[in-house]
Amino acid sequence: MKYRISLLSLVAVFFFVSTVHADVVTFTKEYTYQASDFDSRNSSRTLALEMVKRLLLEELGTYLVSETEVKNMRLTKDQVTTYSAGIVGAEVIDEKWDGKTYWLKAKVSADPKEVEKALKKLVEDKSKTQELEDTRRKAEELTKENKRLRRALAAGTEAKNRDKITEAKNVEAYEKTIIGLNAVEWFQKGYKAAIGERWEEALDAFTKAIELKPDYAKAYHARGLAYLSLDNYQQAVQDFNKAIELKPDYAEAYYFRGLYYNILDNYQQAISEFTQTLKLKPDYAEAYCNRGNAYNNLGNYQQAINDFTKAIELTPDNADAYVARGIAYDDLGNYQQAIKDYKIAARLGNKSAQSNLTKLGIKW
């Protein structure tokens, strides 16, 4: 029995890929933004779109909490709204700009059952829920700062002793909030494209986010995952390197960089990357699994077993971890324990374990 992890499946799990069905609900909202003297068409559209997206996702969140089994998931409406942003997106239906106001009409369409399924899977991974919460928090902070600067600029222009230097600084800061919101918008587009496995589209969106905000560590990491799915490992590792340079405590970037070194059969370096991942995120079960694989490939079977055991403690239903530990026991010559782990994996639904045990005539 061989234990291999598909990079594509890992990236798919990271982005929570789900299928789409025809039963959908649709919500539509309109919003009109009153431009200030310091707004352009672009900034007005950005702010109008940010607000209409928020209104749409809040309405979808309210529907899901009241009309679906999401209400049994012990999530607040704010959490449902935040996490739904990683699953569905707003589509602009119509928009108008007259130089003073920006009117925008958009809709959100979603299959409630599919969103519910995706949410259930999403809440199992704290790193992904945290990422979505961070993204929403960043957008809210940028919007709040934008409002503050707009008030400050309006007050400055009305003041008798107008401070041109302060005004220039505020205008620059105001423009940065618009750039930041646009970068977040492109990041969200890339995230949704990745969910649909539209990798080229995802690459394009993450690249645009990076062009707008060159210090966007999350966008580099997400683009790295998209490159991995396209087997462009060199470009992927460059993006992981950049993400770590910008955010030295980025556990997931170390983890996927470890997978890259596993591909190169550089197991010692892979172990180093997974160890760093676990220092930053001690409950990262997959890091234990993949460090265990690296140890096993180096012939350090007992250390591999220790890591697989830890992964199982963290995720008791992890069939792959049982298969991997079974292989390590097998390599160590402990066939009884190996068969025991293969049986557990088979009962948990691992097809490979089921098939191999059946061929050996062993009931599971």
Helix/strand layout:
Blueprint: H1 7-15, E1 25-34, H2 41-67, H3 77-84, E2 91-97, E3 101-110, H4 112-122, H5 126-158, H6 164-195, H7 199-212, H8 217-229, H9 233-246, H10 251-263, H11 267-280, H12 285-297, H13 301-314, H14 319-332, H15 335-347, H16 351-359
Antiparallel strand pairs: 1-3, 2-3
Keywords:
364 residues; Serine Threonine Protein Phosphatase 5, Tetratricopeptide repeat; three-stranded antiparallel sheet; 16 helices; 69% helix
Give a description of the structure.
The protein is mainly alpha-helical and 364 residues long. Among the domains are: 10-17 and 128-248, Serine Threonine Protein Phosphatase 5, Tetratricopeptide repeat, CATH 1.25.40.10; 18-124, no CATH class. The chain has 16 helices and three strands. The protein has helices spanning 7-15, 41-67, 77-84, 112-122, 126-158, 164-195, 199-212, 217-229, 233-246, 251-263, 267-280, 285-297, 301-314, 319-332, 335-347, 351-359, and strands at 25-34, 91-97, 101-110. Strands 1-3-2 form a three-stranded antiparallel beta sheet. Strand 2 and strand 3 form a beta hairpin. Helix 1 packs across helix 8 (217-229). The longest helix has 33 residues, at 126-158. The two termini are 16 Å apart. Mean pLDDT is 89; it is low at 1-9 and 16-22.
The CATH homologous superfamily name of the domain at 10-17 and 128-248 equals Tetratricopeptide repeat domain
Question: What is the alpha-carbon Rg in Å?
Answer: 24 Å
- The arrangement of helices and strands along the chain is HEHHEEHHHHHHHHHHHHH
How far the N terminus sits from the C terminus, by CA atoms, comes to: 16 Å
Q: Could you give the order of strands across the largest sheet?
A: 1-3-2
How many DSSP-defined strands? 3
Mean pLDDT: 89
Structural class: mainly alpha
Sheet having the most strands: 3 strands, antiparallel
Q: Beta fraction of the residues?
A: 5-15%
State the CATH topology of the domain at 10-17 and 128-248.
Serine Threonine Protein Phosphatase 5, Tetratricopeptide repeat
What is the correct CATH architecture of the domain at 10-17 and 128-248?
Answer: Alpha Horseshoe
Count of DSSP H/I helices: 16
